[in-house]
Amino acid sequence: MKIPFLDLKMMNARYESELKSACSRVIESGWYIAGNELSSFESSFAGYCNTAFCVGVGNGYDALVLVLRAWKQQGKLHDGDEVLVPRNTFIATVAAIIVNNLVPVLVDVDPDTFNIDLNLIVNASSEKTKVIIPVHLYGLLAPMPEIIAIAHENGWLVLEDCAQAHGAEINGRKAGAWGNASAFSFYPGKNLGALGDAGCITTNDTELYKLLKLLRSYGSVEKYHHEFLGVNSRLDEIQAAMLKVKLKYLDEEITFRRHIANRYLSEIKNPHIILPKALMNTAHVWHLFVVRCQSRDKLKQYLAGFDIQTMVHYPFPVDYHKPYSNLKVFKSRDGGAHNFILSLPISPSINDDEQSFIIDKINGYLI
């Protein structure tokens, strides 16, 4: 039995006819950029997140970059301002800060949730701190009520990185509806994935929304009239059309992931494996199911021997990478969680027999 970590072809196969129909509709329309498909998806996704606005962009990195750029354009941020960001995140989050001539301050994560450690936030801040970017890692929302309270008290802007958390909630309030703005990636492997690169920004801020729509398209108010120094980052019509198809099934996909996660949580009984915590009042969407094991590499090799593919998200904190090695870091007492984490297969393409096989082999693992 060979179990891939992620089988995108199988995941998209269930929607194949609708996806092909959506593509054909765009091709036949003769309108391929900034048309009805984009506006329709933006409206649908804003409605899903319960936000006033959604702005489709080229990818999740651009979503982060453009929000920070817009805040600079509005005079809310200036070169050299500091941005608090988790130490354990995909590199794009930090790169988006640096490209805007802002200064990332890396804050370690809580080893139980892998999200930013609340106990370190205030100590990591300074008079230069102007933004906090909570990253909802692995599909679990960061502790947003507490983060929002800290941000309001200090006058910081909040930019949610929702790249792994489509549909996640705390007390019924979804990812993308907490911060001043939020960035989403629709990279193919996400819970809501395009068939190529794609991303968006959600916000309730009318002025920010208007500015972002200009910045994503060369800063153009109308063709050949450029009011701002913008970029070319537009969610194209075909990707928007396919995302709207898949958005209809997002909650169903999340239900599949929760079924697998619940089996792992209840049936994995190996004392060498530390399971992720499911928190009260928090609707985890299980983009990834990440366990901890002191002998992580040995466990990974052991599972590979049974053709069970696993991955590590992420093997190194941001500051371990050469371009980011000089950044300021605020470490927790357990700052080495990255050495022990392993992601198990959890995509909706894994059937019950395959889930049972994974559980059985993990329970049979001995150090």
How is this structure best described in words?
This protein has helices at residues 8-13, 16-29, 36-49, 60-73, 91-98, 118-124, 144-154, 206-215, 237-247, 250-267, 296-304, 352-363; strands at residues 53-57, 82-86, 103-107, 129-132, 157-161, 169-170, 173-174, 181-185, 199-203, 220-222, 225-226, 282-283, 289-292, 328-330, 341-344. With 367 residues, it is an alpha/beta fold. Strands 1-9-8-5-4-2-3-14 form an 8-stranded mixed sheet, with helices on both faces. Strand 6 (169-170) and strand 7 form a beta hairpin. Helix 4 (60-73) packs parallel to helix 5. The longest helix has 18 residues, at 250-267. The chain is globular, with a radius of gyration of 21 Å. The two termini are 23 Å apart.
Quick overview:
The chain has helices at residues 8-13, 16-29, 36-49, 60-73, 91-98, 118-124, 144-154, 206-215, 237-247, 250-267, 296-304, 352-363; strands spanning 53-57, 82-86, 103-107, 129-132, 157-161, 169-170, 173-174, 181-185, 199-203, 220-222, 225-226, 282-283, 289-292, 328-330, 341-344.
Which sequence of SSEs, written as H and E, runs from N to C? HHHEHEHEHEHEEEEEHEEHHEEHEEH
Count of alpha and pi helical runs: 12
Mean pLDDT: 95
Strand-residue proportion? 15-25%
Q: Runs with pLDDT <50, length 5+?
A: none
Strand order within the widest beta sheet: 1-9-8-5-4-2-3-14
**Biggest beta-sheet profile:** 8 strands, mixed
Structural class: alpha/beta
Terminal residue distance: 23 Å
Global Rg: 21 Å
Keywords:
367 residues, alpha/beta, eight-stranded mixed β-sheet, 15 strands
